[in-house]
Amino acid sequence: MIAIGSDHGGYKLKEEIKKYLEEKDIKYIDCGCMNEERVEYPNIAKEVAKLVQTKKADKGILICRSGIGMSVVANKFKGIICTPCHNEYTAKYSKLHNNSNILAIGADDVTQNEAICILRMWLATEFEGGRHQERLDIIKEIENENMK
Q1: CATH level 3 topology of 2-146
Q2: In the prediction, which pLDDT does 147 show?
């Protein structure tokens, strides 16, 4: 199950990504927004992050104009690793080395086709573990010290 959300700037791309998910028979929860009317992106990012954090969703996708604002909010949640990705390379390594559980995409930075390629790579890539798990363990320690 994937939780997906966007602000008004990412709405059109979110709708295209939903079509891709449906074609691939991937279940999702749409956390908004539901049209191109202005919304506050932190509220959408919060909803997606909470669903991933509480394991009600396995992964998340967040879309705004840059992908940055959404990722900032999502990364405020313990256990969330939200990575803004702007090409297949960053999508691959966000999972391979960082075990990203939320993908952030900037709708102004990529075409619809590029976004689908980014998503496809992110979904297909498995976490490598090893030295990368050791680094994630250090990050988790830092998270535990600073996120009470």
Answers
A1: Ribose 5-phosphate Isomerase B; Chain: A, (3.40.1400)
A2: 87
| Mean pLDDT, contiguous 10-residue spans, the chain (148 residues) | 98 98 98 97 98 98 98 98 98 98 98 98 98 96 91
Instruction: Give bridge partners of residue 83 from the DSSP assignment.
Output: 103
Catalytic residue status for 64: yes
Tell me the two tokens of residue 21. 């998910």
pTM beyond cutoff 0.85: yes
Residue 93 — left, alpha, or beta (φ > 0 → left; ψ -120 to 50 → alpha)? alpha
Question: Are 82 and 59 within 8 A, CB to CB?
Answer: no
Report the distance separating Cα 140 and Cα 28, nearest Å.
27
97 Cβ contact list (under 8 Å, min separation 6): 128, 132, 135
**DSSP-based three-state secondary structure for 138:** helix
* Joined tokens for residue 27: 């279940």
Active-site residue, selected from the candidate residues 31, 33, 64, 85: 64
Tell me, what's the pLDDT at 137?
97
Question: In this predicted structure, what is the pLDDT of residue 118?
Answer: 98
Could you confirm whether 82 is annotated as catalytic? no
